[in-house]
Structure formats: structure tokens, C-alpha cells
Write a sequence for this structure.
């Protein structure tokens, strides 16, 4: 099996919102599906590689935020590929429960109030549902690597770890300004929302210890392991941000974080 190629699909240009395609010998694995209506952009990206939606063998959704899960149901319908996700975010994929959002800074709080992040998407039930620390071997889908639970950004967050040392970690961390991207893309930062910074820090440290050298992100990136490690060391000392509910905003007991700039 040759080393797969990783292709970033700009859902929003300049790295602001990314999906990724892992292109292997025997087909492609799509990691994240963008906001609702992103299926055409993903189809275009496949076309640019001389491929089509029929070549997508698996759809991995890293977590239930709408900029990652928003087009999953549509892409499953168009490609016939199964969706894999973690049970920790299942109530949100099925839209049975409103999400909560722990804002990591004032920009995130403003962003939450715009209502964009709570935009509903077509609900779905994953075909393959990972539980706890279960690991999914990706070799049956033509890719040398695995998908596994990396909780912290949300309870059900997942990452993809390739044997080549490339990892796709969704929103475990971001880089750049605003949502991520634009400028300062080599500088790691917290994403706009993050449930449990200590859990994220542990996962990032574990990924680096397991030999991951390049981290591909939902917003900004990619980042080298050294920068991820620096961020994880700092993040382990941070507290969760102020919590907002998707329906009615409220404050949780935690003190607000000291902002997302570091
Ligand atoms: Zn997210
Ligand atoms: Zn995101």
C-alpha cells in the first residue's frame, strides 16, 4: 500500500474552513464534510484529482459542529459511502439535543451570537459508530492508518492517524486568525469553541508521542509536531470557556477563559 496523499479542500478559502481527502491506491477517505451545501465543492475537488464521489469509500466526521458534519447526510446519499463517527456526539448528529458551546475568547462569544454555528443541518445516524476508545482500522478502505476517539473539543471528537505520521485532528486545535486561516497559520491556537482544554492537551500530547509529525486542521494549519506540543503544554493549564447553549444562552459555573490569544 503506497503512502496516501492528503488533499485539503477549502470549504471557505484561505484555510478558514477545511475538509480533507485522503487519497489512497484503492479509493478516497473523506475527513469532514463542511457546512451544509458543501457537497459541490467536495465533488469539484474530487474532479480536479480525476476522481468522483463514487471513489469515496468512507466519510469520517470528526465532530458534530455544523462546519464539519453539515454535508455528511447529503454526501452519504451521493457517494453511497458509510459515515463513521463517535457516539459521544450522536445526540447532535441526530439533532435530538441542542449543542453546548464553550467559547474560548471574546471573538467566539460574538461569533456564537451571530447564530451561524448553531445553524441546523440534515440529521443522520452514522453507519459505523465508535464507542469509548475504540479504534477503526482504515486499511479495508485503502488507507494505512486508523480513526479513533480524541475527546476534548467535544465529547465525541475523533482524529485520523496515518502510518505516514500525518494526522487529521478536526478542531483539537486551530491556527491563524478569526476562525483559523488567513494569516499566522503557523501559530497554534484554541479553536473558537472547546469543551475541555485539559483533555485536548492530553490527546495532542499522545498524538505527538505516537509519532504524528504533521497536523491537518479544520481551521488553518497544517502544523508541525513541535508547535502542537508547545500549544498542548500551554493548553493543559487553561480552564474551559464560558458555556452557551444552542437554544438559550446561559453561563455555566466555570470561570471564563483568559482569551484565546497566546
Ligand atoms: Zn468544532
Ligand atoms: Zn470547526
Amino acid at each position: 500500500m503506497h503512502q496516501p496523499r492528503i488533499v485539503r479542500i477549502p470549504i471557505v478559502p484561505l484555510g478558514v474552513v477545511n475538509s480533507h481527502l485522503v487519497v489512497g491506491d484503492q479509493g478516497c477517505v473523506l475527513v469532514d464534510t463542511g457546512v451544509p451545501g458543501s457537497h459541490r465543492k467536495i465533488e469539484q475537488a474530487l474532479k480536479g484529482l480525476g476522481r468522483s464521489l463514487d471513489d469515496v469509500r468512507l466519510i469520517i466526521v470528526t465532530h458534530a459542529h455544523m462546519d464539519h458534519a453539515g454535508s455528511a447526510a447529503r454526501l452519504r446519499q451521493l457517494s453511497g459511502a458509510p459515515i463513521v463517527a463517535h457516539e459521544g456526539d450522536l445526540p447532535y448528529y441526530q439533532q435530538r439535543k441542542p449543542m453546548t458551546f464553550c467559547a474560548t475568547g471574546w471573538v467566539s462569544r460574538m461569533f456564537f451570537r451571530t447564530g451561524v454555528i448553531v445553524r441546523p443541518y440534515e440529521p443522520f445516524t452514522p453507519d459505523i459508530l465508535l464507542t469509548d476508545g475504540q479504534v477503526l482500522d482504515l486499511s479495508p478502505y485503502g488507507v494505512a492508518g486508523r480513526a479513533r476517539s480524541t475527546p476534548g473539543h467535544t465529547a465525541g471528537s475523533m482524529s485520523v492517524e496515518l502510518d505516514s505520521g500525518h494526522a487529521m485532528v478536526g478542531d483539537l486545535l486551530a491556527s491563524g486568525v478569526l476562525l483559523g486561516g488567513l494569516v499566522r497559520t503557523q501559530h497554534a491556537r484554541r479553536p473558537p469553541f472547546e469543551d475541555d482544554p485539559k483533555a485536548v492537551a492530553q490527546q495532542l500530547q499522545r498524538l505527538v508521542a505516537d509519532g504524528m509529525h504533521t497536523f491537518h486542521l479544520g481551521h488553518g494549519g497544517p502544523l508541525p509536531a513541535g508547535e502542537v506540543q508547545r500549544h498542548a503544554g500551554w493548553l493543559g493549564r487553561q480552564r474551559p470557556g464560558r458555556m452557551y447553549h444552542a437554544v438559550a444562552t446561559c453561563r455555566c459555573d466555570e470561570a471564563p477563559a483568559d482569551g484565546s490569544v497566546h
